[in-house]
Amino acid sequence: MRIMMLATLLLLTGGAADARNAASKRADEADAIKVAKALDGLTPGKPQSCISPFPRDYHTQTIGDTILYRVSKNLIYRNEAPGCHRAETGDALVSVNYGAQLCRGQIIRTVDLFSRTLTGSCALGEFTPYTKAK
What we know:
Elements: H1 2-38, E1 42-44, E2 50-51, E3 59-63, E4 66-72, E5 75-80, E6 92-95, E7 102-103, E8 107-111, E9 118-123, E10 127-132
Antiparallel strand pairs: 1-10, 2-7, 3-4, 4-5, 5-10, 6-8, 8-9
């Protein structure tokens, strides 16, 4: 009897894991579509290790684990930063710059705007510039 109960429990938890994986896959596909739409009409360039955040301010948009730094309608930097998806739900991205640039490997924190508590962190990847073809 115990073996049957254990087998049933294992089957149920395996089914739940499959459902979570399927939901995660659908969310990843939806995020990929959103990123493609945001970068529509732009051509990717050579990835860079760092970008200068000064003197211009970037408009950032988080889609899943992708951060888009919008400089203008003709230039957007794409950064893959696994773990920064919390900013998509309303958390703020906070970076502490020790130099004059944002660089690959730099830690970005996510902070809840209402309670001002740290909700997570992630490391930046390479910055891929997307520019409008002339």
